[in-house]
Design goal:
The protein is 20% helix and 24% strand. The protein has 173 residues and is an alpha+beta fold. The chain has a four-stranded antiparallel beta sheet, with no helix packed on it. A four-stranded antiparallel beta sheet has the order 5-6-7-8, with no helix packed on it. Strand 3 and strand 4 form a beta hairpin. The longest helix has 24 residues, at 38-61. It is elongated and about 85 Å long.
């Protein structure tokens, strides 16, 4: 820097001796004056190896079937639009890109004509388990798929959505 420079020409952002003159005027980049040591190269290699090992471990450990308390209940092909499992008091229903396991007695069934769930006494539910026409909504067990097999967790029961009071007529009554 030129010492003949007047005080009002000095930059306000710090000493300019550490940066080249153009950079100190623009204050946009910092020039490293010393090379990085070998420890930085070793540290970056170690970090890369740690990331690769963690990724491989995650891929290898996440491919198996679900463990207890999950239970295999049916093959996807068996479900169709709906499949009753009276021994578990569950109705499997396929729709909206997933299979749901509703906690239901054997009297709840899928109705092709209305594309809803219905019981012989006239209660009606949507395919999401929402009670229609004043019926209480169906609760469900969590489900997951693994290699075309449906698994459910019988230890968890999730409440259904808020029922709708809007009147509805059964289609398979």
């Amino acid at each position: 820097m030129d010492d003949d420079r007047r005080a009002d020409e000095q930059p306000e952002f710090g000493p300019s001796g550490y940066l080249p003159e153009r950079a100190s005027q623009r204050a946009r980049k910092i020039v490293l004056r010393a090379p990085l040591g070998a420890q930085w190269i070793v540290a970056s290699l170690v970090a890369g190896v740690v990331v690769v090992v963690a990724g491989v471990w995650l891929l290898l450990s996440s491919g198996g079937a679900p463990e207890e308390p999950w239970v295999a209940v049916a093959e996807v092909e068996e479900v169709g639009r709906a499949l009753a499992l009276p021994e578990r008091e569950v109705l499997l229903v396929a729709g909206a890109g997933r299979i749901r396991a509703f906690v239901a007695t054997a009297e709840v069934a899928f109705c092709e004509d209305s594309n809803r769930l219905e019981s012989p006494d006239g209660r009606v539910w949507s395919l999401t388990g929402r009670g229609l026409g004043g019926a209480a909504s169906l609760s469900e067990h969590p489900t997951t798929l693994h290699e075309r097999t449906v698994y459910l967790d019988p230890t968890i029961e999730v409440d259904g959505p808020e029922p709708s009071d809007e009147p509805v007529e059964p289609g398979c009554g």
